[in-house]
Write a structure and sequence with these properties.
This protein has a single domain, classed as Expansin, cellulose-binding-like domain (Immunoglobulin-like, Sandwich), CATH 2.60.40.760. The protein is 0% helix and 42% strand. The protein contains no helices and 9 strands. Strand 1 and strand 2 form a beta hairpin. Pfam families: Expansin_C.
């Protein structure tokens, strides 16, 4: 279940989840952001590998974000989300583990 793109969805009591795209590799990471509570579109999504700072991701289509890193990335990964409407920011700490696999869903303990 994905959050709507043009209207806010209400998933109170549900944490944000990240479904890693089946084609993801250590050099290319893509995922769908699921269950953003009532915030509508995201203004930005950033990923932080185990060593390094946050890197901006590109929006592919509604709720799907990607990063072509140019070098191998290793987890665990922190994900920083910024709401398009309220500009609230949440960080899902170590939400995608070091031993992540493509086509898997990883649940955070945060929501807007």
């Amino acid at each position: 279940m994905l959050c709507c793109s043009s209207a806010a969805c209400l998933y109170q009591g549900t944490e944000i989840a990240f479904h890693v795209d089946a084609g993801s590799t250590p050099f290319y990471v893509a995922f769908v952001v699921e269950y953003e509570n009532g915030e509508g579109d995201l203004a930005s999504v950033e990923i932080q590998p185990a060593s390094g700072g946050f890197m901006p991701m590109q929006e592919m289509r509604s709720a799907e974000w990607k990063l072509n890193s140019g070098g191998p990335l290793s987890g665990p990964f922190n994900i920083r989300l910024t709401s398009g409407e309220s500009r609230k920011v949440v960080v899902a700490q170590a939400v995608i583990p070091a031993d992540w696999k493509p086509d898997q869903t990883y649940r955070s303990i945060v929501n807007f």
